[in-house]
Write a structure and sequence with these properties.
The complex is a heterodimer of chains A (217) and B (185). With 217 residues, chain A is an all-alpha fold. Chain A has two domains: 94 residues, no CATH class; 116 residues. Helices cover 77% and strands 0% of the residues of chain A. Chain A starts with a helix and ends with a helix. By secondary structure, chain B is mainly alpha-helical. Chain B folds into two domains: 92 residues, RNA polymerase sigma factor, region 2, helix turn helix motif (Rna Polymerase Sigma Factor, Chain: A), CATH 1.10.1740; 82 residues, Arc Repressor Mutant, subunit A (Orthogonal Bundle). Chain B has nine helices and no strands. In chain B, helix 2 crosses helix 7, helix 6 crosses helix 9 and helix 7 crosses helix 9. The chains are: A mainly alpha (217), B mainly alpha (185). Chains A and B meet through helix 1 and helix 2 of A and helix 2, helix 3, helix 6 and helix 9 of B. Chain A: This is Anti-sigma factor. Chain A: It comes from Pontibacter mucosus. Chain A: Keywords: Membrane, Transmembrane, Transmembrane helix. Chain B: InterPro entries: RNA_pol_sigma-70-like, RNA_pol_sigma-70_dom, RNA_pol_sigma70_ECF_CS, RNA_pol_sigma70_r2, RNA_pol_sigma70_r4_t2, RNA_pol_sigma_r2, RNA_pol_sigma_r3/r4-like, WH-like_DNA-bd_sf. Chain B: It holds the Pfam family Sigma70_r4_2.
């Protein structure tokens, strides 16, 4: 009884396969297959895997390679970040000792010591120029105001320098420090100008007086 | 199965496929696509799904060709991939494949008169298509793909006896469907 159906199907087995897939299906399968044949090779970005023959192995290799590259990238970034943080922590710890301050500033803002040295020499020069003028003779008591101003700039400079060790925004602070130094130079320059002009006026009046005196004589 | 005779002929082609020969792959595809598509079609009972299964199976077969050990014929190795992919597709769309609802079987008459008329291939084929998923899969695997109940049990993850009882129910249901007015030629 059972055999009748089985026999019927077996006898007509070929006739049961009535369906056919679309011809485009092969194209779709091709797209999913890693290409190795030479005519398709140019279309695909390929790395040389040597004699590796299996398709899946190549995909696997690519995945592993991508993962390694990613890991290396992450590792390097973390390494560089870690390398920077202990250094700044170290300088922060020792920032109280003034003697070791300068080289560590160099670690945070390498350009700063040079800028500092330049401005300090400028300021010293202006100050020594200023001290050549006999203020009392010129009848000027403004110097005290300027000294106060310079002291104020100096103290804010120290604050900035301390911030440099703690704040992550080094560039902004360095800019402020340079600005601070620049203001000092400008203040001293202005003072020098004033004094020069005063001296000139004094000399002129002296000369006038002298000529007046001689003419009177 | 008829495809078994291709075994020796295919060995060279299979080797060329392993080394990535595009033309050898197409050769195998041409040779097997129709038979495999019908296998897929019988299990999924859906043209688009059957195509997806066929594509998936061929891609997977070509990628894993190096694991083909020539213990069985290439055709039956490929068929197993297709059948597994098709069963997975049906499982995805319906949670339960086997066993079927018992009550549906209980309602059926035990006696089915078989020798009434001559069967037509088209009639039987369409009747198989009308079977519920679980029945259709077991019956197709047994009758058309030449799987025995042990193999069906393995591929579906059921016991051999479950496969047997599923098949006899499916068979009854099939004959019943064939007696419906639109199937009587």
């Amino acid at each position: 009884m059972k055999d009748r159906l089985e026999k019927f199907v077996q006898d007509h087995r070929e006739e049961f396969d009535v369906f056919e897939p679309r011809t485009e299906l092969w194209q779709q399968i091709c797209q999913d297959l890693p290409q190795k044949s030479p005519e398709k090779e140019a279309k695909v970005i390929k790395f040389s895997f040597g004699d590796r023959a299996s398709f899946s192995a190549d995909y696997f290799f690519m995945r592993v390679a991508a993962a390694i590259v990613l890991l290396l990238g992450c590792g390097l970034t973390i390494f560089l970040m870690k390398q920077q943080t202990p250094e700044s922590a170290y300088t922060l710890a020792s920032s109280e000792s003034i003697t070791t301050e300068v080289p560590e500033v160099g670690a945070i803002a390498p350009e700063l010591p040079e800028i500092e040295a330049y401005y300090v020499s400028q300021i010293e020069e202006k100050k020594s120029e200023l001290s050549e003028y006999d203020l009392k003779v010129l009848g000027l008591d403004e110097q005290q105001v300027i000294d106060k101003e310079l002291a104020r700039l100096d103290s804010s400079y120290t604050v900035l320098k301390q911030q440099l060790y703690t704040s992550p925004n080094t560039e902004e602070i360095v800019n402020a420090m340079v600005q601070n130094l620049g203001i000092r130079v400008r203040v001293l320059n202005r003072q020098l100008e004033v004094l020069q002009r005063l001296q000139k006026i004094n000399k002129e009046t002296n000369l006038k007086q002298q000529t007046n005196d001689t003419s009177n004589v | 199965m008829e495809k078994l005779s291709y075994q020796d002929v295919n060995q060279g082609v299979v080797q060329r496929c392993i080394s990535g020969d595009h033309r050898a792959q197409y050769e195998l595809y041409k040779l097997y696509s129709k038979a495999m598509f019908n296998v897929s079609m019988r299990i999924t009972n859906d043209y688009a799904e059957a195509e997806d299964v066929l594509q998936e199976a061929f891609v997977s077969a070509f990628k894993n060709l190096h694991s083909y050990k020539a213990e069985a014929s290439f055709g039956s190795w490929l068929k197993k991939i297709v059948i597994n992919a098709a069963i997975n597709a049906v499982r995805k769309r319906r949670s339960e494949l086997v066993p079927m609802d018992e009550r549906a079987v209980a309602d059926m008459a035990d006696e089915v008169n078989e020798d009434e008329s001559e069967w037509q291939v088209e009639q039987v084929r369409r009747a198989i298509q009308k079977l519920p998923d679980g029945y259709r899969v077991v019956l197709s695997l047994y009758l058309l793909e030449g799987y025995d109940h042990a193999e069906i049990g393995e591929v579906l993850g059921i016991s051999e006896s479950t496969s047997k009882s599923q098949y006899s129910r499916a068979r009854k249901k099939l004959l019943e469907i064939m007696k419906e007015p639109q199937f009587v030629a």
